[in-house]
Amino acid sequence: MSYHNPFTPPRKSATFDDYTLAEIRRAAATGIYDIRGAGTKRKVPHFDDLLFLGASISRYPLEGYREKCDTTVTLGTRFAKKPITLRTPITIAGMSFGALSGNAKEALGRGATLAGTSTTTGDGGMTDEERGHSQTLVYQYLPSRYGMNPKDLRRADAIEVVVGQGAKPGGGGMLLGQKISDRVANMRNLPKGIDQRSACRHPDWTGPDDLEIKILELREITDWEKPIYIKVGGARPYYDTALAVKAGADVVVLDGMQGGTAATQDVFIENVGMPTLACIRPAVQALQDLGMHRKVQLIVSGGIRSGADVAKALALGADAVAIGTAALVAIGDNDPKWESEYQALGTTAGAYDDWHEGKDPAGITTQDPELAKRLDPVAAGRRLANYLKVMTLEAQTIARACGKNHLHNLEPEDLCALTLEAAAMAQIPLAGTGWYPGKGGF
Amino acid sequence: MRVFDLATTPLRELNSALHTVAPGANDTSFEVVNPRGSHSVAVGIDKPVTVEVKGSVGYYCAGMNDGGTITVHGSAGPGVAENMMSGTVVIEGDASQYAGATGRGGLLVIKGNAASRCGISMKGIDIVVHGSIGHMSAFMGQSGHLVVLGDAGDALGDSLYEAKLFVRGTVKSLGADCVQKEMKPKHLKLLAELLEKAGATDVKPEEFKRYGSARKLYNFNIDNADAY
Ligand SMILES: Cc1cc2nc3c(=O)[nH]c(=O)nc-3n(C[C@H](O)[C@H](O)[C@H](O)COP(=O)(O)O)c2cc1C
């Protein structure tokens, strides 16, 4: 009689899972790290882990379509002679011409303008189309200073000094040779077809004391008219916010790790920075400690997808939010209608992130004129405006249910947390308790 | 000529007056006295005005200058003439870090020495330094010319793109992808013009060496990873 061992199924390692193994093989075969667009793909505690409580006996709601729930926000009230007022607190984040096609930038401008909000330039400078189609345009002042000039500084409505980005706090930019068309090369004063590295640090200042002097210079150049924003990645939100205030910012833009990017090393996107949820309370605390909450406005970004996310960010103390990835999806990024072409690129709709390669079937993250033509900027702008309006209405719906006549009246007391992690990071009581980790009580 | 005494007049008044000069105005000369190291003196000029600064200035003097002629009769702090578009800036004394950073055009003349990162990320500006320059100068320089009559510090022209560098003295070390290149007649001619414009009449173009990009880092290659 022969003996057979009982069958045990093959077991794969949780540490060395299929994705990890494939990545090791890819690195070994190509000798290059993986560069991609979009934000972190790992699951991190997020707005989904918070819920609103709604009204009850102690708090009465506002009537859905009858009673007003204001959504306007004014940015730059601290020092700027000309603060900007938006009809919705949802702004379009900085995304470069170069990373995005001219049509995509135009669509963002059109959509934002229809919805009464602002859009933002990016690494590479301001284009005439973008200026022309954006009623309110924020001009980024980045380490590379590609395309930076005083004329555009003066025709901007606000200036955003970019210190960091949530997808890559501490990292610079990268635009690979494939996307450097004549126009992009010309705007950046570089030869066509070469990889463009954007520095990770500003060339002419380091540290908060220098930043204060830099901001003085920008204000003097623009005669103190423009609101000056400082954008930081979610790394040390308490101190970065406090230092931005000290340096003279009108507005702090805080971008958590889920924030998208045009092209960054995957290892950077996935392993550096803090989740958006964990960044907001420390930043708000810093503003409150300095007596500056609502005087210096806070714009939060990184993974904002819906009116619920907007309402939650505002309830935690933000004045406004910014969207990047969601805006691209609204205009047509990763649309399943291009599925066969995504498959040809070895991916699938919803997972396409090789934005740096310039082959985007949707014609958004490309400089190829044939692909770019696929995006109709007027129709795409309309879609973005619709989406912005839906998100605004969703946020209002929640705010009214919480009895608030302005989105800014939402407050942490309107929220509960579903998980211990979210409770700890957002300092919101775990549902059904009055407690969150770090706080005493039951 | 209008005179601004920064001991008694706010900086704002000076810059505001510079920005509101009417096109075609007759009186386009300004004098600044008692600058006492003030930051952002004469920034954002966009007309062909002349400014004589009688003393030393702090950060970003003549920042983003577009067409003005600014002379500092003293030394300049960090970032002098940063992002200049056009015009001329002359520093009679020394300049601190990042002189001419990201400049796109115009001429920056430093009669003394310049500290580290002179011409960092330059994008078309011409910079002539009569003395020596510090480390990491012309880092990521994209275009334009940096001329140094004295010596250059460590890592000159690191990660250089298409900026052209001319040094008369010694170079302590070259940065990644920066190499010495042949001085051709066209370079000698160009250098002679720059030296003349900068009032460097006692030196000859033949005394300089030329440096530029080896262009090996222009497209990513893993075998060059140490150099990135
Ligand atoms: C295609 C793309 C290009 C971007 N380019 C820039 C840029 O030039 N400058 C910048 O500060 N941030 C840039 N970002 C980041 C956005 O401004 C913003 O921080 C981020 O997209 C917000 O997160 P979300 O994508 O989850 O909405 C870019 C993002 C994307 C998706």
Automatic annotation (TrEMBL), chain A:
Residues in a coiled coil are none
Biological processes annotated in GO: glutamate biosynthetic process
Enumerate the UniProt keywords alphabetically. Answer: Oxidoreductase
Annotated Glutamate synthase domain residues: 78-332, 356-404
GO molecular function per UniProt: glutamate synthase activity
One Pfam family here: Glu_synthase
Q: Which domain of life is it from?
A: Bacteria
Q: Does the keyword Secreted apply?
A: no
Q: Tell me the InterPro entries matching this sequence.
A: Aldolase_TIM (IPR013785), GltB (IPR024188), GltB_archl_type (IPR043578), Glu_synthdom (IPR002932)
User: Mind telling me what this protein is named?
Assistant: FMN-binding glutamate synthase family protein
Entry annotated with the keyword Oxidoreductase = yes
UniProtKB/TrEMBL annotation, chain B:
Extract the InterPro entries matched here. Glu_synth_asu_C, Glu_synth_asu_C_sf, Glu_synth_lsu_3
Start and end of every Glutamate synthase alpha subunit C-terminal domain?
A: 42-181
Q: Name one GO molecular function term.
A: oxidoreductase activity
Q: Which Gene3D superfamilies match?
A: Glutamate synthase, alpha subunit, C-terminal domain
Against Pfam families, the record matches this protein to: GXGXG (PF01493)
Q: What is this protein called?
A: Protein GlxC
